[in-house]
Amino acid sequence: MATSTQPPTAVLNSSTAVVHLEYDMNNPPALPGPASEWTRFVCLSDTHCRAFPVPPGDVLLHSGDLTNIGTLSEFRGAIGWLQTLPHKHKIIIAGNHDVTLHNHDGWYDANYQRWHRRGKENTASVRNLLRNAKNKGIVYLQEEQHEFQAKPYGKVWSVYGFPWSPFHRNWAFNYYRENADQIISTIPKTDILLTHAPPYEILDIGSRNERAGCKALAAQVEYLRPQLHVFGHIHEDHGAEIHEWTGSEDAGERSVFVNAANKPYGPKARTSGGGLVPFGTGVYSPVIVDLYDPVERT
Fold first, then answer.
1. Coil, helix or strand for 139?
2. Which parts of the sequence belong to the Calcineurin-like phosphoesterase domain (predicted)?
3. C-alpha closest to that of 258 among 294, 221, 292, 210
4. Tens of pLDDT along 26-54?
5. Residue 162 CB neighbour total at 10 angstroms
């Protein structure tokens, strides 16, 4: 099992990771050390067609629900916005709302009328849009692994994208919990894990104050121990934790977990005055994760 550092403030610290949950968007926090030793990841999720200020960094990670119902028009807007952001590396996955991306097994063809009553969207055009976005530095992962180097002579990072989430009203990329072990076991060792849904008991408390995370994913994450695991889906529990794994041969082994959902929902979505927190701001700001990444010169 793991112990976690809960966020008593808007900043979490360890010797190899610094996480910023709230900050001045006009003056984002500095790196904790020289740029040659640290890599900045900016984490988003559940942006649902909205555009808002995002701090600069080396790598942008998005854990799905780029859209509301996955139309080509919505994807054009979402990808167009991401293209304007300054990050050299941008890595994205789908979520349950990105319905047109779930058609490899005929699911969209069988279910499209629930969302697209005027007719099916052109799923090939959606795929081509994402494929062409790679020319703009945006990499879409669907049960795939990707490697990149954030800076010359730095670490070669591996990232795996997994869009599936536990069954809820038969939205896209849903699996039944009784089948979770089979599908979750396909997730490989990786430095960075992007999933749409959270693991059980990690930033997964929903609107009914119940745990919505996946137990099979929690077990797999404990086995994989990625340096960074980013997800969303459960908007109510936006935040971050740094876990220090116990019983590890490598003392001090840690994972940073981030629920990066940006759409305000639930108790955190209200200000002290009762108003709605603006989209992607305050406690729903993009999460900044700085990871120790020293340059290795030969």
1. strand
2. 56-236
3. 221
4. 999 999 999 999 999 999 999 999 999 99
5. 27
Q: To which H or E segment does residue 165 belong? A: strand 165-166
Strand pairing report for 174-175 and 192-195 = unpaired
The structural domains of the chain, ordered by start, are 2-292 (3.60.21.10)
Sheet holding 239-245, edge to edge: 2-5, 239-245, 254-259, 228-231, 192-195, 156-162, 144-149
CA atoms within 13 A on the CB side of 142: 14
Which amino acid is it at 29? P
Dist. CA 270–CA 265, nearest whole Å: 8
**CB-hemisphere CA count at 13 Å for 266?**
19
Q: Which amino acid is at 264?
A: P
pLDDT digits (tens, 9 = 90+) for 130-182: 999 999 999 999 999 999 999 888 999 999 999 999 999 999 999 999 999 99
Residue 52's nearest CA partner among 290, 294, 295, 278 is 278
Q: What CA–CA distance (Å, rounded) separates 280 from 264?
A: 7
